[in-house]
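Support request from a user on the community tier.

User writes: "When I paste my structure tokens into the form, the page sometimes reloads and wipes my input. The last time it worked, I copied everything first. Here is what I submitted, just in case something in the input itself triggers the reload:"
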């Protein structure tokens, strides 16, 4: 089980890694420049896909704000237009590229990024320049944005783990700028933050000499530097005020408790840890890795049955950090029990020191990670931004020498200095779930549901050219597609951007169809057993073999491998051993079965579980197999022979697809995969893995209470009578983009968030499978907005069904979909996920291009007709998790 991220920190700790005797460099070029106004520019060339990410890092965050949430509010208003580009022009200009965009406010840095096809990088640069030369910050715009940002605050504060994290942070780093409230409060947004304060903060800190611009992707570095100089070089520098000093007070222990709505109990021990500027930083990161290793006593707790999951993470700032040891246990386990266990483990390591081989393994993994950084263009830009703008390093690989110098005594010294249980800050999150649902409350709002007009001003010439020359992007990957004699489908994508290989595999299956009656849960128990070793290596020995080559594997019906290309053969040997020769020992089975039963006991009263159960019951006929659920009773009755029977029936090579991408050739990959997977044989006929078709659902409403939540999470879902291969799918995908693609450029975001402030986020989705499909819309809102928002959604859908979409909106939506084609393939994970998805559905591997062609050719009338035929505005199943509508 993964520990909730909110408990472990509002942002992930920086993992800087690199060096050892691995091939020296990924295929990237780095060019730097500092403009005369002080703007630092770093361009990292990565030719993985014709895509670029431009990330502007302003070196200011919540540390320097004088009103809680002021930095966060400024981040939001950066999307509300400037003196040279209106909000609609900004959103439309980026939207037509098909690009992703977002922003993030931290303690010390606020980051803004655009990921676009590299041919459209100029658009992203010009959009960023517009925000750097005079933000409007108009009061009427802030009045509109205050609704969504307030709901974001309510949403996050509804999470017990989030509340606990900030209590721990205030205790560990209280009195320093790092403990300031980054998110903001409802009261401060209502009475403190206003146009004047926003402008003051912006004009104080948003200057080129306080920014670092990182651009990564398939670009010409020198030409990109020249373009940045042309666009940003005339922006004047400014004198920056002094920053608030960091003065750490003596740390005092404390215990915080929160009631959660989760399915498990969580316990966290918080410690003050070395920050980026400390000479102990590298040793602290190695210590974190050592403790998280499943070979450590702490990381091994889940495998002994004492925890559902454990993790040690760090939340790092320049002059200090938080180290958090977290564990999740079944609801029946008192938090004090696992608390004592964690403290005893820490004290044991303090007395005896950490194992030297775990230190060596952690250093090797940190160093080797550099090669994997180039496997995602957006991830690469993020790594460089984290390293340079936040950590203050020259580059991500600046940590090489520091990691290489870390010794076992260094790690032990950091452990004994910082992990002191006399000053530990402890947090308990204990669930208290009613385990009930009720019929949905309230009728749809009877109000004026007129759709506010979208004011789309003409695009600047530098963005209009995208629409003037719209076309389907060329396919940028060239997969080879073969079938091994035993039926395994092998897809290989050679890619030499880094010295790594990534393998993703999937066995086509559906336990709802295949698992025998009364054996529900056997699939989950089986999946849990793969981590316990093979017939060749026990759990610890197998983990040690992976550590020797800094590789990672996962096994089950979804399986995979991340490995350096020099160790590809050895990595596949280990993956095949894990997937094809699991140990399935009786003692391990007992642990996994009991854990699964305990976990399910907590899940069955948790609101998220009950919401999904209610949704399935409402969407599908009574007794439908989609409603099958494992219970503590069915799991507890399982035997090891049940596991072996399930494995023998479901794990078949003729239902398996393996995708390989990276530094290899199709011939080499084929030979290695066949060498280790070729002896795997299938017995008997293939099982049926498809769900039966179902009739349309009836509309209904269900409310699911959730302890502590003040925001409602709303799902509107209905069945669609199509399959993924239906010609209507690209038409509905285009309509879906009109609804929520491109943020404020979309109908629902414009109406529900930008204008009315009903919601913080809203997403629509067409989920199409081989036999069943759904159309859904999800949004988070204050309870009083649940029904008005649904009423507006129904009105918008009805309008789209009765009148053709206006030509300019349809064209912008088509452009967005065209741009998404290369962006989806700008990471190794994106490529493998896409190809596995197409293979599982029986679609051609270039289905992305096929879909894009159909979307581009679609007429407004064909989209209207598809919506009118398949979507029922009054046919939604509504599930509200949290406070019900009044």
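"...and here is what came back when it finally went through:"
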């Amino acid at each position: 089980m993964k520990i909730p991220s909110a408990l472990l920190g509002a942002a992930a700790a920086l993992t800087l890694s690199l060096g050892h005797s691995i091939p020296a460099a990924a295929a990237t070029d780095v060019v730097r420049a500092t403009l005369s106004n002080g703007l630092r520019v770093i361009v990292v060339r990565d030719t993985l896909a014709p895509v670029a990410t431009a990330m502007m890092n302003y070196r200011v965050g919540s540390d320097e704000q004088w009103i809680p949430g002021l930095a966060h509010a400024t981040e939001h208003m950066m999307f509300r237009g400037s003196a040279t580009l209106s909000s609609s022009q900004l959103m439309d200009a980026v939207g037509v590229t098909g690009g992703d965009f977002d922003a993030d406010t931290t303690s010390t840095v606020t980051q803004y990024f655009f990921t676009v096809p590299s041919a459209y990088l100029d658009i992203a640069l010009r959009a960023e320049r517009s925000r750097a030369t005079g933000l409007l910050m108009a009061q009427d715009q802030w009045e509109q944005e205050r609704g969504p940002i307030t709901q974001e605050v309510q949403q996050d504060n509804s999470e017990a783990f989030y509340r606990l994290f900030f209590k721990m942070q205030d205790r560990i780093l209280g009195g320093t700028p790092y403990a300031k409230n980054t998110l903001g409060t409802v009261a401060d947004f209502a009475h403190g933050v206003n146009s004047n304060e926003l402008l003051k903060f912006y004009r104080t800190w948003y200057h080129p000499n306080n920014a670092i611009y990182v651009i990564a992707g398939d670009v010409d570095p020198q030409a990109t530097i020249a373009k940045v100089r042309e666009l940003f070089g005339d922006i004047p520098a400014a004198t920056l005020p002094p920053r608030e000093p960091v003065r750490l007070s003596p740390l005092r222990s404390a215990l915080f408790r929160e009631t959660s709505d989760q399915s498990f109990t969580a316990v966290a021990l918080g410690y003050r840890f070395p920050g980026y500027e400390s000479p102990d930083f590298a040793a602290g990161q190695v210590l974190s890795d050592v403790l998280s290793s499943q070979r450590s006593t702490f990381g091994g707790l889940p495998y002994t049955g004492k925890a559902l999951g454990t993790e040690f993470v760090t939340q790092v700032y320049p002059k200090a950090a938080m180290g958090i040891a977290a564990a999740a246990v079944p609801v029946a386990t008192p938090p004090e029990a696992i608390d004592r266990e964690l403290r005893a483990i820490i004290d044991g390591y303090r007395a005896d020191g950490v194992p030297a081989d775990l230190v060596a393994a952690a250093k090797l993994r940190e160093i080797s990670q550099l090669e994997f950084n180039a496997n995602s263009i957006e991830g690469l830009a993020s790594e460089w931004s984290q390293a340079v703008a936040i950590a203050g390093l020259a580059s991500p690989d600046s940590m090489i020498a520091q990691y290489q110098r870390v010794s076992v005594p260094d790690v032990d010294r950091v452990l004994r200095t910082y992990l002191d249980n006399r000053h530990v800050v402890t947090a308990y999150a204990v669930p208290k779930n009613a385990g009930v649902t009720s019929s949905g409350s309230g009728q749809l709002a009877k109000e004026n549901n007129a759709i506010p007009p979208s004011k789309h001003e003409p695009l600047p010439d530098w963005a209009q050219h995208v629409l003037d020359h719209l076309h389907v992007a060329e396919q940028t990957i060239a997969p080879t597609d073969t079938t091994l004699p035993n039926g395994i489908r092998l897809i290989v994508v050679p890619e030499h951007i880094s010295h790594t290989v990534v393998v993703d595999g999937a066995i086509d299956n559906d336990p709802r169809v295949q698992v025998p009656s009364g054996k529900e849960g056997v699939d989950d128990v089986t999946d849990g057993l793969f981590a316990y070793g093979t017939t060749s290596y026990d759990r610890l020995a197998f983990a040690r073999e992976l550590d020797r080559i800094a590789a990672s594997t996962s096994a089950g019906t979804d399986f995979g491998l991340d490995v350096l290309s020099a160790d590809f053969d050895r990595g596949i040997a280990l993956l095949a051993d894990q997937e094809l020769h699991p140990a399935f020992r009786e003692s391990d089975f007992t642990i996994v079965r009991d854990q699964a039963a305990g976990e399910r006991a907590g899940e069955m009263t948790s609101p998220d579980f009950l919401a999904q159960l209610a949704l399935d019951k409402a969407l599908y006929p009574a007794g439908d197999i989609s409603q099958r659920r494992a219970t503590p009773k069915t799991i507890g009755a399982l035997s090891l022979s049940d596991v072996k029977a399930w494995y023998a029936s479901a794990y078949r090579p003729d239902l398996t697809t393996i995708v390989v991408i990276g530094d290899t050739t199709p011939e080499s990959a084929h030979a290695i995969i066949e060498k280790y997977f070729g002896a795997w044989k299938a017995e008997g006929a293939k099982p049926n893995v498809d769900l039966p078709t179902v009739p349309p659902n009836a509309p209904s409403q269900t409310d699911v209470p959730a302890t502590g939540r003040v925001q409602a999470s709303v799902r509107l879902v209905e069945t669609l009578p199509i399959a993924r291969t239906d010609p209507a799918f690209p038409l509905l995908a285009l309509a879906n983009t009109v609804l929520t693609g491109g943020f404020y450029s979309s109908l629902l975001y414009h109406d529900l968030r930008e204008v009315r402030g009903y919601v913080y986020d809203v997403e629509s989705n067409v989920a199409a499978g081989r036999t069943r499909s759904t159309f859904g819309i999800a949004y988070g809102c204050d309870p009083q907005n649940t029904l008005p928002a649904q009423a507006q959604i129904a009105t918008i859908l009805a309008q789209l069904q009765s009148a053709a979409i206006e030509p300019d909106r349809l064209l912008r939506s088509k452009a967005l979909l065209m741009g998404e084609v290369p962006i989806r393939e700008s990471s190794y994970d994106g490529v493998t996920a896409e190809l596995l998805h197409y293979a599982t559905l029986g679609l051609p591997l270039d289905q992305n291009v096929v879909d894009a062609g159909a979307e581009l050719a679609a007429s407004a009338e064909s989209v209207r007709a598809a919506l009118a035929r398949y979507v029922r505005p009054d046919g939604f199943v509504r599930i509200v998790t949290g406070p019900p509508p009044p």
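Agent notes: The reload is a front-end session timeout and is unrelated to the input. The mean pLDDT is 93. The radius of gyration is 27 Å. Escalated to web team.
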